TrEMBL record:
Name under which the protein is recorded: FAD-binding protein
Coiled-coil intervals: none
TM region positions: none
Highest taxon, organism lineage: Bacteria
Residue intervals of the FAD-binding PCMH-type domain: 11-177
PROSITE patterns: FAD_PCMH
Keyword match Oxidoreductase: yes
Cross-referenced InterPro entries: ALO_C (IPR007173), FAD-bd_PCMH (IPR016166), FAD-bd_PCMH-like_sf (IPR036318), FAD-bd_PCMH_sub1 (IPR016167), FAD-bd_PCMH_sub2 (IPR016169), FAD_lactone_oxidase-like (IPR010031), Oxid_FAD_bind_N (IPR006094), Vanillyl_alc_oxidase_C-sub2 (IPR016171)
Keyword terms: Flavoprotein, Oxidoreductase
Length: 421
């Protein structure tokens, strides 16, 4: 069997021993038989967090809704379900997810295990709505955790980095269905950003700022505003000096907007507006690299200034950079743990040799602002620096050792960034 790659094609997994269990009993049997095993979701991680030199397990066949409780406003899904399918299931039920990532084609479990997020001042990352999980531990036994029965352990393992077991089901809290209209604004100057950063991020339910660092300021501001279903498409012509777009836009200059969610203020159901890209367009190759650093919100103006000084080095290697706000949470290994945050996300051209040269310079420029790298993306920070950002790390290690005393779910990534001294 040929070695397999991640979605973007930048990472090749280390083994050809791949397993695709059909059900939970298959997972339990595999875990009992394997000395070492790791699980992949939709393969959207860009680094080695989900890799194994021994056995790989894909949960692609576990992709169904297990329980939908409209009265309690919860839904339980199998771990391999993708947000695109979950969103379509919820359509017409009167209930919704609070947020989505920019791509809807990622698996629920994989996104939650790495604290993947969307945007919005009051929107926590995707893991924050998990109220219960079921997983297979290192002995092959089923374990159930819920917010109601063991809230602290759930906080520890919801962003579990794949280190404690094989997640099989997740229960998610839902919100009433809502509609969004999306507008894009051009050319936000650096001066306007510096003066009005709080107002800009607070101007809609979800806000994203895009730049390529070729010049000061931001090329585009994407504003996703909660509205009534039949809301008017009218929008203010300027947003702190940025001008309203009159045609649909792609975040990357020169790319057509046909794969992007509807804009121009046309109201639509939540799942047709919250991602940047349409659900019926599944990215086929990616051919890109991704990096993201999450910093405390109060540092964002200084951080933008620091990165801007590297603009001439960054811009030639970059497709686009996106800034998003994320609400703080109390999930132990979340990048947003106890801090309202801004994510600074780089979508790079597929040139790792060059990108890995500039990442240390970006990380040095951001060091004073205590960045936390996204767990599933590319970074070069020293393990000690990463570990220092997580005050609950010692307790997290202890829990991993409780559920996996012999390191069955460990791999070099976890050894380096979680257990490394």
């Amino acid at each position: 069997m040929k070695k397999q790659q991640n979605w973007a094609g930048n990472y090749t997994y280390s083994t050809t021993n791949w397993h695709t269990p059909q059900n939970v009993a298959d997972i339990q049997q595999l875990v009992k038989e394997c000395n070492y095993v790791k699980v992949v979701g939709s393969r959207h991680s860009f680094n080695s967090i989900a890799d194994s030199e021994h056995h790989m397990m894909s949960l692609e066949h576990l992709s169904q809704v297990v329980d939908f409780n409209k009265e309690a406003q919860t839904i339980t899904v199998e771990a391999g379900m993708k947000y695109s399918d979950l969103s379509l299931y919820l359509e017409g039920t009167g209930l919704a997810l609070h947020n989505l990532a920019s791509l809807p084609h990622i698996s629920v479990a994989g996104a939650c295990m790495t604290a993947t997020h969307g945007s919005g001042d009051h929107n926590g990352n995707l893991a924050t709505i998990v109220s219960g999980i079921e997983f297979v531990d290192a002995n092959g036994e089923l374990v159930h955790l819920s917010r109601k029965d063991d809230e602290e352990t759930l906080k520890a393992l919801v962003v579990g980095l794949g280190g404690f077991g094989v997640v099989t089901k997740l229960t998610l809290d839902l919100v009433p269905e809502y509609h969004i209209k999306q507008n894009v604004y051009h050319n936000l100057t650096l001066a306007s950003f510096q003066e009005h950063v709080e107002e800009i991020f607070a101007s809609a339910y979800s806000v994203s700022l895009f730049t390529d660092w070729s010049s000061p300021g931001f090329n585009q501001v994407w504003q996703k505003e909660k509205v009534a279903e039949d809301a008017s498409a009218e929008a203010v012509p300027e947003l702190y000096g940025a001008t309203l777009a009159t045609e649909k836009m792609h975040p990357i200059a020169g790319h057509g907007a046909e794969h992007c969610t509807d804009q121009l203020g046309v109201a639509g159901i939540w799942h047709d507006r919250m991602p940047h890209f349409r659900m019926n367009f599944t990215p086929s190759s990616g051919k890109e690299l991704q990096t993201e650093y999450i910093i405390p919100r109060q540092h964002i103006v200084d951080a933008v200034t620091a990165i801007g000084k590297l603009g001439k080095k960054i811009s030639p290697l970059l497709y686009v950079c996106e800034l998003r706000s994320i609400a703080q949470d109390d999930l132990w290994m979340s990048m947003n743990y106890q801090q309202d945050s801004i994510g600074i996300h780089f979508t790079w051209k597929d040139d790792w040799e060059s990108v890995q040269q500039v990442l240390p310079e970006i990380e040095a420029a951001l060091k004073a602002f205590e960045p936390r790298p996204h767990w599933g993306k590319l970074f070069t920070m020293a393990p000690a620096q990463v570990q220092a950002r997580y005050p609950k790390l010692p307790e997290f290690r202890s829990l991993l050792q409780k559920y996996d005393p012999n390191g069955k779910f460990r791999n070099p990534f976890l050894d380096q960034y979680i257990f490394g001294e």
